[in-house]
Amino acid sequence: MTNGQDIDTLLDLDGIIIEQAGGCWTKFEVRLISQPTNEIPHGIRYSLTLPDRRGTRLMGFDNAHAVKSRKKSKQHDRTTYDHCHRHSADKGVPYEFVDGHQLLKDFWLEVDITLRALGLEEE
User: Fold this and answer.
1) What is the pLDDT of residue 31?
2) Which are the contacts of 111, defined by CB distance < 8 A and separation ≥ 6?
3) Rounded mean pLDDT of the chain?
4) Residue 75 has pLDDT above 60, yes or no
5) What is the largest CA-CA distance in the chain?
6) CB-count burial class (<10 Å; 0-12, 13-18, 19+) for 101
7) In the beta sheet, which residues pair with residue 19?
């Protein structure tokens, strides 16, 4: 379950853009919603993205729309809003939102993996 401090950390990042290697950048959009819902139980709407120099999303985590699990089982046959886009054409795969700190850790890990895969990692 999330705590107020980790949500505040995410909210503090709203509007922040950080330059990355190869002309890429990271962008954080985080907003508190009026009341938690079944779709957004943690009470925040977020979009953490890594766009390229043209602004095309290379990778990102968000909860802007629903995605369905691709696994075929009763437990995984559900729709979730928290998800990750692993590349520019990815429509999203479910992401298990644990808390704000874990989201940031997972996001930065994927930023590093993506930049490395593109040969753009920092030296």
Assistant:
1) 96
2) 20, 26, 50, 59
3) 89
4) no
5) 45
6) middle
7) 25
User: Residue 7 pLDDT > 50, yes or no?
Assistant: yes
Q: In angstroms, what CA-CA distances link 4 with 1, 32, 64?
A: 10, 11, 21
Q: How far apart are CA 112 and CA 58, in angstroms?
A: 12
- Cα–Cα dist 36/115, whole Å: 34
Upper half-sphere CA count for residue 57 (Cβ side, 13 Å): 19
Considering the entire predicted model, what is its pTM?
0.86
Tokens of 47: 């979009």
96-114 pLDDT tens trace: 999 999 999 999 999 999 9
Query: How many Å apart are CA 25 and CA 123, to the nearest integer?
Result: 16
Taking CA atoms, 96 is separated from 32, 38, 69, 121, in Å, by 19, 14, 11, 27
**Residue 91 structure tokens:** 């429509």
Report the alpha-carbon distance of residue 68 to residue 122 in Å, rounded. Answer: 35
